[in-house]
């Protein structure tokens, strides 16, 4: 039983449903991220489609959706986004694994899942932030925290991780609950479509 659960988690079939889902998830990511940037929100929202794809079709579909979105977004609106394609890949995998293990079944579990996903995101994004942007994220209040920590002689990696993790907590909690609410409203027939 345990082995079949593992197999079904990583099973990926490029069915018609998944071929429609991935571009739809990329579109959701793209629009949500552009909206957040346009409104100068203190979060990104660019992983909503990734969450939904992972919840519906598994971690591989979510990872592909997140990765493709970052490449397209980077080529069209913000070259910075391309660098974080690997972070989006990891978010898709983390969401898919947590969802498969039942961590999106209650509001309390969704919160814990969001914290875990935020940690995964911050661990991968921090070195990228240091390599490409001197440790900053580009979000004003997070970068103010970074500057304050560096001014107090804390290591750049710690200041960068804190900057990223604080923003990721806010972003991933918002996105996780939004995805949770959307998923629960989907018709069961549609959800089953991706399970077959």
Question: What features would you highlight for this structure?
Answer:
single chain, 196 residues, mainly alpha, Arp2/3 complex 21 kDa subunit ARPC3, disordered N terminus, transmembrane helix, ECF transporter S component
Give a verbal description of the structure:
This protein has 196 residues and is mostly helical. The chain has one domain (2-195): Arp2/3 complex 21 kDa subunit ARPC3, CATH 1.10.1760. It contains ten helices and no strands. The protein has helices at residues 2-10, 16-38, 48-57, 59-76, 80-83, 85-100, 107-133, 140-151, 156-185, 188-195. The protein is globular, with a radius of gyration of 17 Å.
CATH second-level architecture: Orthogonal Bundle
Please give the number of β-strands.
Answer: 0
| Cα-based radius of gyration, to the nearest Å | 17 Å
Mean of pLDDT? 92
* Residue share in helix: over 70%
CATH structural class? Mainly Alpha
Principal-axes shape call: globular
Could you name the CATH topology? Answer: Arp2/3 complex 21 kDa subunit ARPC3
The structural domain count equals: 1
Task: Report the major sheet.
Answer: none
Unreliable residue stretches: 1-5
Query: Strand-residue fraction?
Result: under 5%
Reading the helices and strands in chain order gives: HHHHHHHHHH
Class of secondary structure makeup = mainly alpha
Layout of strands and helices, then pairs:
Blueprint: H1 2-10, H2 16-38, H3 48-57, H4 59-76, H5 80-83, H6 85-100, H7 107-133, H8 140-151, H9 156-185, H10 188-195
Helix pairs in contact: 2-3, 2-4, 3-4, 3-6, 3-9, 4-6, 6-7, 7-9, 8-9
């Amino acid at each position: 039983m345990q082995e079949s659960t593992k197999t079904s988690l990583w099973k990926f079939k490029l069915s018609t449903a998944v071929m429609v889902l991935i571009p739809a998830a990329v579109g959701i990511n793209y629009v949500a991220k552009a909206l957040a940037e346009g409104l100068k929100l203190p979060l990104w929202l660019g992983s909503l489609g990734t969450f939904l794809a992972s919840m519906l079709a598994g971690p591989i579909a979510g990872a592909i959706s997140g990765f493709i979105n970052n490449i397209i977004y980077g080529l069209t609106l913000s070259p910075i986004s391309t660098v974080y394609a690997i972070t989006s890949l990891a978010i898709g995998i983390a969401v898919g694994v947590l969802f498969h293990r039942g961590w999106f079944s209650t509001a309390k579990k969704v919160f814990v899942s969001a914290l875990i996903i935020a940690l995964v995101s911050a661990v991968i994004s921090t070195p990228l932030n240091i390599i490409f942007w001197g440790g900053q994220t580009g979000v004003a209040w997070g970068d103010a925290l970074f500057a304050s920590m560096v001014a107090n002689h804390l290591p750049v990696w710690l200041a960068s991780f804190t900057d990223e993790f604080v923003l990721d907590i806010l972003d991933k909690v918002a996105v996780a609950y939004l995805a949770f609410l959307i998923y629960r409203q989907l018709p069961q027939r549609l959800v089953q479509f991706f399970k077959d």
